[in-house]
Design brief:
Blueprint (H helix, E strand, L loop, with lengths): L2 H19 L9 H20 L1 H29 L16 H4 L1 H16 L2 H13 L7 H13 L16 H13 L6 H8 L6 H23 L24 H48 L8 H15 L7 H28 L5 H10 L6 H14 L4 H29 L10
Helix pairs in contact: 1-10, 1-16, 2-3, 2-10, 2-16, 3-5, 3-10, 5-11, 6-7, 7-8, 8-10, 8-16, 9-10, 9-13, 10-14, 10-16, 12-13, 13-14, 14-16, 15-16
Length: 432
């Protein structure tokens, strides 16, 4: 273990300290939850990074995801022709997100819906929830919702819809935090497409990052908002609610396809809207800051929203345990994720690797730290979607919204720190 690993470990401790510093009840520190969730996080990371047989699991998971993406490409090529060909395939006209990435989102949604219909996903989710909720001192409902985020995203709230209106605020914060701190399987292909050229095993690591982020989200959210009430489902895991409204396997495929289209169009619309709004604000901000700096210092210097977000995120970038020449890149990627979604951050990360500005270790750590829907737009989506299921809790959810974004940010940074603490160049983790 080198100094960078110890640096990352110190960053993990600092994340927990920041959560405690911003807690609503600093005196009610949940020691048992922190110790057990921390132990689970460290144990899972040790398996991922230190246990050689698990590298075969990473290879298998990576191969499975890339096979599914290749299958999705068949439908995309039939529908869009040359527009669906990714570089460097012969006949490709360049990288086009709408035609080469979003179709995979539709296909993954179909696969997820079918696996839910046949009972496989409910069995996995309930099994995982039952395995962790007792030791972490969580209610069954919040555990079920947190675990199912890995597979369903915002639809995970449907799993516990009957209990939402009677949940404590601490439970609601965990549901929001776990949703923002993980990525759903339906969008996994999206990020794989963005990074696979520089990180061949990215699919397996994105899966492990989402699993690691569950105990990280539990730890951070419970420190930020300790549980002082008695949740309704404490001591039991409720039955999994029906999420896919289909009576026939073909109906589940149709439902999954439509949900995938809705998700794909939503991602595209979100990117158009957020990139456009940030550009619009930047036009005004650059004019104002340019005028002010020209009159105050005599030299015109322009500031943008990304620059402001980078400054705000710089302390978090320092916690990851990267080399000093990577601090600025880390801060910029974390900052722009708040504004422009993780899609842009992963795209920029790949560009930084190609330019030689981020090392292989930095690539792995940042891939884990950026793995989550931790941005302003997702806060609105998750809070709005959950409030639609429990209208009586709308005010509570709104009050928790920005705290959930802060909690999810700390949780993903904590996951990145843990990855940095356990990785020192072991073969078979970045290149097959």
């Amino acid at each position: 273990m080198g100094w960078l690993n110890l640096y990352s470990l110190g960053g993990a401790v600092a994340c927990i300290f920041l959560a405690w510093l911003t807690s609503v009840r600093r005196r009610a520190f949940p020691w048992r939850t922190v110790l057990w969730s921390g132990a689970l996080l460290v144990g899972m990371a040790a398996v991922v990074f230190w246990w050689p047989p698990f590298r075969q699991v990473l290879l298998w998971a990576n191969r499975l995801v890339t096979t599914l993406i290749a299958a999705a490409d068949e439908g995309a090529r039939f529908l869009f022709g040359p527009l669906a060909l990714s570089p460097p395939a012969p006949g490709s006209i360049g990288f086009i997100v709408a035609f080469q990435v979003l179709p995979a989102v539709v296909f993954f949604s179909v696969v997820t819906a079918f696996l839910y219909y046949i009972g496989f996903l409910p069995w996995v989710v309930r099994g995982m929830a039952r395995a962790v909720y007792r030791n972490l001192r969580l209610s069954g409902a919040e555990t079920l919702a947190a675990v199912s985020n890995i597979f369903l995203g915002i639809e995970s709230a449907l799993m516990v819809r009957p209990y939402l209106e009677r949940m404590t605020r601490s439970e609601l914060l965990l549901i929001l935090t776990s949703g923002l701190a993980t990525i759903a399987s339906t969008v996994l292909a999206f990020y794989v497409r963005l990074l696979e050229s520089v990180f061949p095993l990215i699919a397996g690591h994105l899966i492990s990052a989402s699993f690691l982020s569950i105990p990280a989200a539990v730890l951070i959210s419970k420190v930020l908002y300790p549980e002082t009430e008695t949740p309704e489902t404490m001591g039991r895991v409720p039955e999994v609610e029906r999420v896919v409204p289909a009576e026939h396997w073909m109906g589940s495929i149709i439902w999954g396809a439509w949900e995938g289209v809705r998700l794909g169009v939503g991602i595209g619309a979100l990117l158009i809207g957020m990139l456009g709004l940030v550009r619009l604000v930047d036009l005004g901000l650059s004019g104002i800051t340019g005028w002010v700096t020209a009159h105050v210092t005599g030299t015109r210097h322009v500031w943008t929203l990304r620059d402001l977000a980078t400054v705000a995120a710089y302390p978090l970038g320092l916690l990851l345990g990267l080399r000093p020449n990577e601090w600025s890149a880390a801060a910029r990627l974390i900052g722009e994720r708040w504004l422009l979604t993780e899609v842009i951050s992963y795209q920029d990360l790949a560009a930084l690797v190609r330019e030689g500005r981020v090392s292989p270790r930095g690539l792995l750590v940042l891939s884990y730290a950026l793995c989550g829907f931790t941005h302003v737009a997702s806060v609105a989506i998750f809070v709005g979607g959950t409030a639609a299921l429990a209208p009586a809790r709308r005010d509570d959810l709104a009050a928790l919204s920005w705290r959930a974004l802060w909690a999810a940010t700390l949780a993903t940074v904590l996951t990145g720190c843990i990855a940095g603490a356990f990785y020192w160049g072991q073969p078979g983790l970045i290149q097959p």
